[in-house]
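for the writeup, i need someone to sanity check this before i put it in the appendix. the sequnce is what the collaborator sent (i think, or maybe the updated version? ugh). structure was predicted straight from it, no edits. if anything looks off just tell me and ill rerun, i have time this weekend
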Amino acid sequence: MGQLFELISDDALEKQDADYTECHVCQKTGIDLYPYQGKVILDDGTVDDDIYAVCNTCLKSKPLAHTCDFFYTETVEKYLSTQSLTEPQRLELKKQLVEKYNRTPDIPIWMQRPDLPLCCEDITEFTGYPESDESLYEISENHLYWEGGIKEKSEYYDFRKYGSPESFREIASFKCSHCGKKYFTFQFT
């Protein structure tokens, strides 16, 4: 589990690039910034939807929401519908998971839509991208494939046979902090 962000391992955490020099929420400069495409509800009740770089303090304390967070909310709802929960438990857990998601930077990069795997009634931790063909093979051959839920891998995801994706960043690996199961997503460009 990451020290700064629960859903991102410290080894996989990436700061926003140098083009961004101030937090888009509090306007502080000279601090670490993280990628976050979203919106914040301001003190006067208006919404600023031009957020791309956010500091850790604002991520943990301000009313932020990812742009198009409804996509991931649908994934959470679908997952929770498969769990043995009462309606009040399901609604409370959905609220907690969506809030946890909205308090996490846009890491990994999602080419198509946000799709962090869920396991043990929680969101799994992003552990990184493959760094070589060998690590790609290890991940794709030994981790569960996730695409809005656990899915059977396409035969074309046999990267030894069909070749590596255009970028290793298309493959993201995750680990459940409760049971240790490992997952991967593949969002091609």
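The longest strand covers residues 33-41. Residues 109 and 169 are 7 Å apart (CA to CA).
thx in advance!!
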